[in-house]
Fold these 2 entries.
Entry 1:
Amino acid sequence: MSIQVSDGVFRLHTAETTYLFRTTAFGHLESLHYGRRVEDADVESLRYKHEIPHGSTVLYDEKADPSYCLEELPLEWSGVGKGDFRVTPMELRLPDGSFTCDFVYDSHRIESGIVKMDTLPQSAGIGAETLLVTLKDKAFTVYLDLYYTVYEAENVITRRAVLRNAEQAPVLLKRLMSYSLDLPDRGYTVATLSGGWINEANVIERKLETGMLVNESTSFSQHRHNPAVALLSRGATEDSGLVYGFNLVYGGNHQTSVELSPTGLVRITGGINPYCFLWELQPGETFETPEAVMTCSLGGKNGMSQNFHAFVQKQIVRGDWQNKERPILINNWEANFFQFRQNSLLRLAKRGKRLGCELFVLDDGWFGARNTDTAGLGDYTVNRKKLPEGLEGLGKRVNGLGLSFGLWFEPENVNDDSDLYRAHPDWAIQRPNRTPALGRHQKILNLTLPAVRDYIVENVSHILDTCPIAYVKWDMNRKVSDFEDGAFLHRYMIGYYEVLSRIFRPRPQILLEGCASGGGRFDLGHLCFAQQIWASDDTDPIERLRIQGGLSLFYPVSTMGAHVSMAPHQQTLRHTPLFTRFAVAAFGAFGLELDPMDLTPIERKVLTSMLSEYRKIRKTCQFGTFTRVDTGNPYIIQWQAQSETQTVILRAKTLTKAAQVNDLLTVTGLDPHKTYTCREIQNPLFVAGFGTLLKHILPVKIRSYSHILLAANKRLKMDDYAEQYRASGAQLMAGVQLHRSFIGTGYSEKMHMQGDDSAMLFVITEDS
Ligand code: DGJ
């Protein structure tokens, strides 16, 4: 049993953590402990001591207990107007017109698995147990149900709150968060993922001082601020120290507040953003908040990440593709944009197939008058000029090449220049008295309207059922404007999840990739439907190290769409080596975003052998235990993925230092007593990249711009030195010194000829 309740004390245990709270003499829920697993925790030692009250406080019931002050208590929930002045998880206008409320213990029960939600996606409940504690306001028959679902194996506890109005009059909700939790201060730093378009998932760490840090979004989950938040205790590293992680199974406007009170308590509360939020709860109605996910690890940031990865993989992602290796895809977007015909697509697909791709994806531009991004969105009529045999014909031909077929949709948006908008201008979100603000020349469809939802479900489903489609990319390319209020946006989310459920739950065979101008909607709500999400429109691998590395704090590798594109990269003009593009995308749901004809013949050959290498490591990269290895050098980024049979290491160098000779490769998680072979995947060198340096190496002098060199560069490659070691696990964990990189003093075959932005991939297997 992971949940035990006795004498008013609630004990929630996961494999490595314990979460404890109790009811106080006044019926409030007092937080006692969340952290290291404590088998028979002694409540007296854990409780926050408050025998002597602080000065300048408001006492809850001075006569009954002159030291009981809500502001000083660590609480599981709090209200308004009874002496707790910290950020509150709830602001309600009750039938007496006042915001003062006081919710106290009423009852509790334990259920196996989860208690199903009505409107929002939630975790799967496999092997879980749920505690429901019901609180009631002292003055009104308004109930608050607090749900705690314990995932023992994954070290995760989820929380959510449901408000039930049993009064005869409405209750107005201004704010109702999913959870609130108070922890003793440990010198926390708050880590969030923030950024923007093509600049997603920067890890921002801010020291928590007395006061509040808020992570929120006012246009769905979007690029600016991901809903996930971590609390790092002072001194926590990648591998050690107490770290908490919080996330929401929700992609609407979100908010997480972390407040350090003057008396050293940290309150964290998260859920729907109260921004413009007003929800009238009629008599007899309930309001459910999104599920929040919490984890805690003493194993530093990697410990937290690994808990989240296991949880997301098992309890969030679903469908036939949940645990299946993702197909190597070729997407035509960066190769064609809107300019294509069936024949050119088939040529592209054929080239992809020759390289080793398994899925061909037709991106934007196949319907209506969609020849630019100013028209066509909202329509589903296939553009017969581009695709004379329709999607069905194209799909069949793609299948005939030995590839499965995938298709792009952007169902939530509409262009003014579309048949849909001409027929139903009232279906777009806009205010009657204002000129609507556009984003990428488009408006958002009002998914709170049943007719709009039906239109999308029917059109998308029809295509999925009449064409041989194995994969869908669901895009969403604008932020919201011209809305009524925050409650409308929440209703939009409920409508959105209904649409996804109706389309994809009956079709679990389809691999769904979410996308919102890249990683604008990377959240657990979305991952309940989409097995993977396009992480960013920025495909430069050096940028991707930061983006995928940032996302890895909270999300597993299998969920991150990552593609090899052409260099110089569209987003940065950086010229990166092909191998680096491959190696970074290997730690993701891998694909190509290019036309192979733009590569040289030798690059195509090399890429073909990379894809065949990839098939041997794909399972480990996508589903193995993922670790960020701190190399001590901010310019050397190392990731590791480990399965039962294999360890794969990516080591990327973003800035080369001249004459730096020490290059230590350390591995983690091996058996010290076993022997392993560590092999580096062959890294190609293309001759033109060496410019005038060739003069020093070759017996004949060749100018760097000569025709001979350029011709040779198309067809010939050299091989960089590939490391290989046979060593004990203990040795590999202690570290092996890699061979030197070229520093201009001479040439040896046992030397690396890689500079800035290079990458190495190592595969480690146990010797039999
Ligand atoms: C934005 C996506 O992120 C791109 O990959 C591509 O699908 C375009 N939209 C198409 O309009």
Note: The chain is about 20% helix and 30% strand.
Entry 2:
Amino acid sequence: MEEPRVGKVLLSAEAIGTRVREMAADIARAYEGREIVAVGVLTGAFVFLADLVRHLPNQVRFTFLKASSYGEGTRPGELSVTLVGETALAGKDVLVVEDILDTGRTLVRILDILRQSHPRTLRTAVLLDKKARREVDISADFTGFSVPDEFLVGYGLDHAQTYRNLPFVAVLNEA
Ligand code: XMP
Ligand code: MG
């Protein structure tokens, strides 16, 4: 299949697989056999989440959230968050799973909202970190890879909802 806009492969499927298994080992160690409530941030995190949790020995329950920014022209902080699935987070060990940390604003807002449910612990796992673009002071508890400031697709990341199913992460070429 010809994919003219899929450019240089930054992270191969093999490299991602190795790193995801390492992250799962770190997470398992941090949670010491406790049950985890994994909160997947839709839509981009679904591939990473599915791979990550299959390497966790812990019991895992799942919920998903959709973070949507309001229309253009509004302040970036204005985000609505909808939870889908397991919503009883009080007293639980909650792990937010996200595809990529960019300015950091989305994750900060998500954490603010989840904190209102009084989880016992609240931690974050992100596959990719675009550190150069950070606007707010946040870093994930578990990070897969630092990536350069380029628009990336694959392994959950999309351009106009396509390319999410690519098994690798690549740079999107200019149209
Ligand atoms: P902030 O800036 O709030 O946003 O940290 C993180 C969200 O921005 C999206 N994002 C990307 N999506 N390729 C994508 O497909 C990228 O290179 C990229 N960089 C940021 C993503 O939805 C993430 O949740
Ligand atoms: Mg996203």
Note: The CA atoms of residues 38 and 95 lie 5 Å apart.
